[in-house]
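Handout, section B. The chain below has 221 residues.
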Amino acid sequence: MSLPPPIREVKLCYVTDRKALDGTTDDQIRLLLRKIGNASRAGIDWIQIREKDLPARALSELVREAVRLVPASCRILVNDRLDVAWTTGASGVHLGEQSLPVGEVRQFLRDQNHGGEFLVGASTHSLEAALDAEKAGAHYVIFGPVFATPSKVRFGEPQGLQRLAEVCARISIPTLAIGGISLENVQVCIRAGAGGMAAIRLFQHAGDVQVVASALRSRIH
């Protein structure tokens, strides 16, 4: 198995949720694209488009426009849909527990003779899942929820910093913390070994995402 490309810098990842925005679906998509553009220009490294309920064509159009909008320094990742990510020029796919297995996606990329720039990430909620994702060839994992947050209630009680630190210590690929991450607690996540953080509300509902991104950077460096 070929090794994934190294990810060395602490990453900020905006996970989208258009349904938390006002208006019709078309209104939400227009507003979401505006937020994606603003976040990318503010220095957010990765934007995970997590709009799994959209039909394939609508999702493809959204992703293509997002790829067109963002600067080269920002990577667009598509949640769950490898086909959409692959055909729209996105930078990678993020896999959930019910998505295609990481190993099958990595095998697909090898079959396509892909050079290795296409990222494959995985959501994990336990040390075992993180270890499995790494073994299967994931480039990174998102682990959580670390703290309490409404969007992660279905995953049970928060994992806490101790479990985050354990995952970070046991796997060699980057672990991004998710779940209730804020300006007040991001630093302790990085000290626990996290290679970055992912959030929905912190970025999507920010009055000025540039201010939020700058404040985060000042706390993690």
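Note. The first helix runs from residue 25 to 41. Compare this with the example in section A.
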